[in-house]
Input
Amino acid sequence: MFAVAAIALLVTLALVLVRSILGPTVFDRTLAANTVGTVAVMLLAVIGFLLGRPEFLDLAIIYGLLNVIGTIAVLKFFRYGDLGDPGNGDTEGKTTEGRT
Amino acid sequence: MSLFIDVLSWIFLVAGGFFCLVGAVGMLRMPDFYTRMHASSVIETLGVGFLLAGMAMQAGLTLVTVKLAVIGMLVLFASPTASHALANAALARGVEPILDQGKASSNT
Output
């Protein structure tokens, strides 16, 4: 029963990985990475049910927390970091209080 | 009654896998970044919701269901936040959405 859901999640993971490889912009890749994280959370939960080991749910919770933290960190870097913005010249300034 | 719960959770798990596949195909085939984000939100709401509901029905009223609810709340709170930050960063970075200009070009 859980094997069908696990296989569907694995196929989903493969398709999203294809998008993350050929995504034109960095935001496509970040979106794909975020989706891979969500699908991995669900895959961990399904595997926990599939193997009869509910400890995997704790791993899924931790993975979800790390997923959102990683996405926000990457986006903050690409918004305020030094990636050749023509606007700001202080590339090594690392404006920690960059207002939105 | 147990058989009914089993059949219902089976239906929910298959529906969750189906919506995950739909979202993944949408992420692969959508023409724009923002539409791909829309396809990704299908995975994060419908796929996760159906899969978690199916697994909660299979687990019954135990601690496992509480953990599944925690995962569900986490995903339902975190993924809109990440999507908002993603769209905001993309707009600030200058990623242009494809707007409806000619209304005659329906190319897929």
User: Anything to note?
Assistant: Chain A has a mean pLDDT of 79.
